[in-house]
Write a structure and sequence with these properties.
The chain has a five-stranded mixed β-barrel with strand order 1-2-3-5-4. Helices cover 9% and strands 20% of the residues. A hairpin with a 4-residue loop joins strand 2 (91-98) and strand 3 (103-107). It is mainly beta and 167 residues long. The chain has helices at 4-12, 44-49; strands at residues 70-81, 91-98, 103-107, 120-125, 136-138.
Length: 167
């Protein structure tokens, strides 16, 4: 005579597929616990027919400086541009001809500058977010572009020497 409790437990136990080898690591589930269909993997025929689309290449932020940290250029025109909608200011920009021959618009960081036409400047990457079409920055304190005067904090970004200690 069989025990009815044991029989009920045997009938309610899940049946697992037989394993090829025994290991201490559990096998991954054949399907996701949240979905009723199996995980959608492409078959070999689908892959050979060309179901996989490659990811599009990323566009460089500063295309004129590809594989270069900075480039030398000559200022053609120095002026101001107005920023995009929520902001209101006068951003200082310069039209620069790079040594490669390309024409770019660069942002002049910091308060005040001595850049003018025919100034030789150093251009680095990095766009000005609220100025349309400006994808480059000029390096302060390099070549003809002077550093920011009376700058106390973040001096290395603006080409300013450490002020002399008052004695």
């Amino acid at each position: 005579m069989t025990n009815p409790l044991l029989l009920r437990r045997l009938l309610t136990l899940p049946s697992f597929p037989p394993r090829a080898h025994s290991s201490s690591f559990p096998l991954p589930p054949t399907r996701s616990p949240f979905h009723s269909t199996a995980h959608p993997l492409a078959t070999l025929n689908q892959v050979l027919r060309g179901c996989r689309v490659p990811q599009r290449a990323r566009k460089p932020v500063s295309p004129a400086l590809v594989n270069r940290p900075e480039m030398k250029g000559v200022c053609l025109k120095v002026g101001i541009t107005k920023p995009k909608k929520p902001n209101s200011a006068e951003r200082k920009t310069a039209r620069v001809r790079l040594s490669s021959g390309r024409l770019i618009t660069a942002y002049i960081p910091g308060e005040g500058h001595n850049a003018q036409q025919h100034s030789v400047v150093l251009v680095r990457g990095g766009r000005s977010q609220d100025c349309p079409g400006v994808r480059y920055h000029l390096v302060r304190g390099a070549l003809d572009l002077g550093g920011v005067g009376n700058r106390i904090t973040s001096r290395s970004k603006y080409g300013t020497k450490k002020p002399k200690a008052a004695t």
